[in-house]
Amino acid sequence: MADDDAEAELDRRIAAVRENIRTLVEQAAAYSGAADEARNADRIADQESLLAELEAEKARLK
Hints:
The chain is mainly α. It has one domain (about 1-60). Helix content is about 90%, strand content about 0%. It has two helices and no strands. The protein has helices at about 1-30, 35-60. α1 (about 1-30) runs antiparallel to α2 (about 35-60). The radius of gyration is 14 Å and the shape is elongated.
């Protein structure tokens, strides 16, 4: 049961991070300028790193 709860929580967090990435990509497409692009690229990279960590954690539960 605890593993099911942990997996469900990870699924929720993974979905939230994926949504964050989607939003950041949309924002990056809407903004222009080197500073904005660099900031958005950093934010997207941070979210992708978090997503990889969460997916690895979920894989360890199985």
